[in-house]
Amino acid sequence: MRKYFMLFVSVSILLLAGCTDSASGQDDKHNLTLAHNHPTSHPVHSSLEKFKEEVEERSGGDITISLYPNGELGDEREVIELTQTGAVDITKVSAAALESFRPEYSIFGVPYMFDSEEEFEEKMNDPEISETIYQSSKDIGFVGLT
Question: 22 CB contacts (<8 Å, ≥6 apart)?
C-alpha cells in the first residue's frame, strides 16, 4: 500500500484515499491527485489548498498534491470510482455519495442521530466507532480519512 503522509485539516469534510499499491523501486517522491466538485471560490477548496500546502511543506516536498476542483474529473460518484481504481488518490465527497458504496456511511445522513455537535464529535473521536465506518470500504478500494 502507498505510504501516505496525511494531515487532518480542521474542516467538516469527508476525504477518501484509494487503497492501491504503488510501483516499487521508485524514488520516495509522490504526486497525489485530489479531486472534488466545489468551485475554486468555495471555502472547501480553500481548505484543500491549505491541506496541499501543509502536506507539501511537512513532507519536505516528497509529497505533492495536484488539485482538481469544479468536478474536472467527474461528479462525486465518478471520482469515488476513480479513487477505487487508483486513478485518483484522494477525493472530497459528501457522505450521501458514499451510501451506495457502503451502508455504514449512511449514519452521517440520519437526522437527529446525535443530540449535539459535542456528542457527534465525542462519538466520532472514538476510534472503535470512526474506524469501523471509515475502514468499512477498504475491501472495495478506498477508506475514509475524516
Answer: 2, 3, 30
Domain limits for position 92: 14-144
Instruction: Give the count of domains, the chain.
Output: 1
CA distance 10 to 20: 26
- Is this model's pTM higher than 0.85 or not? no
pLDDT tens, residue by residue, 29-76: 899 999 999 999 999 999 999 999 999 999 999 999 999 999 999 999
Cβ contact 2:30 at 8 Å: yes
Q: Which three cell numbers stand for residue 69?
A: 476542483
3-state secondary structure at position 1: coil
